[in-house]
Amino acid sequence: MKQELLAPAGDIEAGYAALYYGADAVYLGLQKFSARATASNFDEKNLDEFTAYAHHLGRKVYAAVNTVLQKKELPELLETLDICSRCRVDAVIIQDLGVARVVRESYPELEMHASTQMAVHNKEGALALQKLGFSRVVLARELTLPEIKEIASVPGLETEAFIHGALCYSYSGLCQFSSLENGRSANRGKCLYPCRACFTGDLGSKHVFSMKDMALKSDVLKMPVTSLKIEGRKKSALYVAAVTDYYRRILDGKGADVVCEENIRQIFSRPWCKFHFNGKNKDITDADFVGHRGLPIGKIEKIVKNGLSLRISHKISRFDGLQIDVPGSEKPYGFSLQKLKVGDKTVISAEKGDYVEIEMPEKHPYLKPGLNVYLASSSAVKGAYDYLKPKPGEYRNLTDIDVRVEINEDEITAEAGKVRVGIKDSFAPAQDVKKTEEAIKLAFGKTGGTPFKLQRLDIHNRKNLFVPVSQLNNLRRDLYARIKPEYKHGTLPQVTEIKPATFPQWIVKTDDLTCLSKLDLSRFSEVVYLIDPLAKPEDVSFISKDKLRISLPAVCRKPKVYAKSVQKFLSSGYTKWEIANYWGLEFLPSDKLDISFDTPLYMFNPEAMQEASAMGAKSVALALEDTLENIKDLAQNPPLKTTFVVYQNAPLFISAGCIRDNDCNHCSGGEKRYELYKDGHKYEAVSKNCQIMVFDRRPLCFAKEAPDVRADFYRMDFLYRKYTPEEVSEIAGKLMDFTDVGNVNKGNINSRKI
Questions:
Q1: How much of the chain is helix, strand and coil, in % rounded to 5?
Q2: 3-state SS, residue 541
Q3: CB neighbourhood size of 166 (10 A)
Q4: Which residues pair with 72 in a beta bridge?
Q5: Which are the contacts of 696, defined by CB distance < 8 A and separation ≥ 6?
Q6: I need a labelling partner for 598 at 20 to 30 A (CA). Which of 154, 298, 363, 415 fits?
Q7: Which residue ranges in the chain fall short of pLDDT 50?
């Protein structure tokens, strides 16, 4: 199987570099609805030129429309998808169920790829999305090779996996840190990367969650996926060229070139890791420093007058950028190399193995022997990746047209579709009919400067008449000037509307049933129970079956561990279930159950809610990171029942990483909690069964705003931390009186936009 090498393009120059250095396909974003909103991205003109050029080379282009959209943004979505259709992108990459519905119903010419933001981390999730019409799923980065192989075995489904680039500590699509803490949503392409920050607390003072970069190198040859994806839509054309070239060589059987690796590290590189590709891996974070480090070239051996000395492992030259790890500083100290000596001689450059003396800038931090030195920017590398590209405007997507030309003694006419033009004159018999036909073909084949490509030409010259070339050219120009390309303008599929309940009912959700012991459950229409693999029906016998809803977790790398427990609940007659990831749809006999979609499935617009209904959902929980304005709008006349979560200790992110200081072989897997602090806020990290969840110690609370939301249900969640029955009773009383509790986080509820 020939695998696709898929490269990123934050702008058209990066796209051209990717194609030149061997990318089989390029993925990019437009001006709106891209998960890399701060990249330059493509306007319609650049996208049209780029797709036309890529298709000329036999390559593909995928457009990332992979954020969640609020209701008011749906008309702008149509504009974006119209551009994708006009510019003939080969597929769109999608996170939002509403976008998927619009594409499937109104833009069937566009293939759908499920973004990694959809958190596909098991075979069941992939199968569920395949049934929705996705031809490809982009896998979660956290997966091991056996897990990748299992999903890649799904018949008829393409798979795409990341092989190189930046990593998030959280599963993509399940991070709300930037949104709930800073008002900048990662699910809307605006992440501020708070995970890169320094945290203090039980673990000391370090960058606990700041990830290294992924670099699978030759291990990519073991991956049975359709497409091998390089991360980097915010990176330069130089970076894209170097990384694409590196993996192109590997895929072409030339091996992992050491020089190419060194070049990449000099352009942009955090320390590299293989994440969890080969199994659980704890060496995935760079706790001491953030950002670009460069290529290690040695350690400081001596501090000398005006500088330092060391033996270098790579050539360096004047004006190269160097960096040094300085303890106590978040980022390495960087400077431009101005003066370099080998022995007593000042030189322009020094070779590998030379013992060099480097003059430091006058104001530099305290340095000492043993500190790492990196080559962070090289003039030689900057000039090593030239690439060819077409002239501006040389390529564009053209519309095929069929033209009919008819010649009579007193008139010649040309028509295409509904447009017809003519020239009246007297036309005499031709001396050579074939030459006349050739002249007509030549004249109407000249489509340069127009958006057309002549597909078919029918010539009707029954009396074998002659037409001067000048008149043929005039006729062609007149015809092509009058034809208006029929550009597609999509529409939003119809959404069914129902009226919400006049008096919303209350729901309580928990992962610990004992905390409900002092709660009057008669005041609640439902109890939602987030189960673990050991849960059994006997645990919930005190709650009537028509009141209990069983909830499955958002992340489940091994769904089979839940099989026995789930089957017991199903056999016992429990028909109400809640899912927080698409894997639950495939895992449960959804056509026979009352299924609710939880908040991680991001209901931001009516189209997403309608799609949820079509998938079998009877109700949906509205997104935690949404604004009150949009939430009120969605609950007004929704296509299915809605739940507004009023209280929750919301996971800021869910991760497969581990912050424990023990090795995996000596870990109990039980729960362990850590207190962390950043910018005056207190956080808690919970490690349990090879998963990390991080919480703001302030719960989300929207009790004060709840009366303005005409949802069918209000929900309070007592999850992830130890609540006493007394606490639950007290908090529930306040919430049901629409009173906020204590010190709370309001997220984006009162924001105008996110």
A1: 30, 25, 45
A2: coil
A3: 17
A4: none
A5: 180, 181, 650, 652, 681, 682, 683, 745
A6: 154
A7: none
